[in-house]
Specification:
Length: 256
Amino acid sequence: MSAMGKIGYRTAEAGRLVVGWVEDRTGVLSWLARFLNHPAPKRGAWMYALGTTALFLMTLQFLTGILLLFYYVPTTDDAWNSVYYIMSEAYFGQLIRGIHYWSANLLLAVIGLHMVQVFLSGAYKAPREVNWVLGVTLLLLSLGIAFTGYVLRWDQDGFWATVVGIKIGSYSPFVGSPVTHFLLGGDVTGPATLSRFFALHVWVLPALIAPLVLLHGVVLVLKHRVFGSEMEYRDRIASLREQKRLQEYGRYEDDK
């Protein structure tokens, strides 16, 4: 065996030892395999990956957002300049911001498709009602984090989109006026608005989304599995056939 072959063999052996040690102490690899490997119907199986796709895009949002925080300055004087610096001067800044921007748009589209798939397949029914409620909550929070991120550029598009969005929200009964005043930090859009939207976008909403994603996409999915597995369909079809057989037998007895 050549020297390079020995090095490769020893590296692979060391990797296996490390992986075995981690699995023996934590069981994280078997847990991850259980989470990733779940049964799905042969037809339309890609539809059952929409939730995992949304999780991936949301993770991408968190990671690229953290990188952007190293350069972004949340003040009315420097917000636009810092974005311009990211796009023109920072290493890989344009790439990272582009990924952050487009993955945010794609995330909302994937969440919408995921909810349509869940609704049409009836996956919101027992025993998955709680997961459906959590999914709707995550959709609303995702819309909120997208809206709060739009103003952070502090350009004409972001500024006036925020003004229009808050104005529309101000017509909500009972809570419209106080919530609008809180978000604006006063009567008009200004420095306090940018500061509060930054806090909501970077701290408050991610802190709410992260545990809900864990509960929605990991804990409850592992507990109830993904709706539409082969076994679940088989059991339901068998139950429906048994009900039909009993109904036909009941009608037969009544006719005698």
